[in-house]
Design a protein that fits this description.
By secondary structure, the chain is mainly β. It has one helix and 14 strands. β12 and β13 form a beta hairpin. The longest helix is centred in the last third of the chain and has 9 residues.
Length: about 220
């Protein structure tokens, strides 16, 4: 079953599965991933809150996948708090593999574990500003008969992705051009000599500008 959503808006949930029967004696190895992560509550609008990502404690090591010739054990941990806003992303691994029962079985050729290629990075979780994307790979051949286990890295990689800054519309006051000077007057009478006064005027107007949302926020709290 899918886990509960990590947040009431723009969160993630996951589901896992385990290998019930390991391949043996030339049988076809299991393919695919042991964990799936998917977004949830995508349509809910989040308030701007900056939260750092946090991971939980490691779980127990699983049973060894082989009784001899080398197997693997796995342990996992989950993201307990997903990053929000400009909070720091989780850079820690969520799964660890280790060798076990490495003594070779009599007369058997070792089989080394093999990783698949990394998938393409997923789309960024945000359309502007800072978000995150991920990619994954799977074990295409389990280690067997004392072969080398897959210990060089995680199954899932999460990375930040920064797009163009988010913008919003703001009304800004601007002056129109000055009008023409009036005729020279003195006491309400137009004169051509002896000194007088001239006037000119201008008006203001509001125009809409696209501004960086972060700059507006910084001005508001500054």
């Amino acid at each position: 079953h899918w886990s509960a959503c990590s947040a009431t808006c723009q969160g993630h949930h996951s589901r896992t599965r385990a290998i019930a029967v390991e391949a043996a004696d030339g049988g076809r190895p299991c393919q695919g991933v042991t964990m799936e992560v998917s977004p949830c509550n995508e349509k809910a609008i989040c308030e701007t809150v900056n939260v750092d990502c946090e991971v939980g404690d490691w779980g127990q090591w699983s049973a060894c996948s082989q009784s001899c010739s080398g197997g693997t054990q796995v342990r996992r941990r989950d993201i307990t708090v997903h990053a929000q806003g400009t909070g720091a992303q989780c850079a820690a691994d969520l799964q660890e593999l280790t060798k076990c029962n490495t003594e070779p079985c009599a007369g058997m050729v070792p089989i080394n574990c093999q990783w698949s290629d990394w998938t393409a990075w997923s789309e960024c979780t945000s359309t502007c500003g800072l978000g995150q994307h991920r990619r994954h790979r799977s074990i295409v051949a389990e280690a067997a008969r004392g072969g080398r286990a897959c210990t060089d890295g995680p199954m899932i990689e999460i990375s930040s992705c920064e797009l163009q800054p988010c913008t919003q519309t703001e009304k800004v006051c601007e002056w129109e051009e000055w009008g023409s000077w009036t005729d020279c007057e003195r006491r309400g009478v137009i004169v051509t000599c002896g000194g007088g006064q001239q006037k000119r005027s201008r008006v203001s107007k509001f125009v809409e500008e696209q501004v960086n949302s972060e700059e507006v926020f910084e001005k508001a709290i500054g």
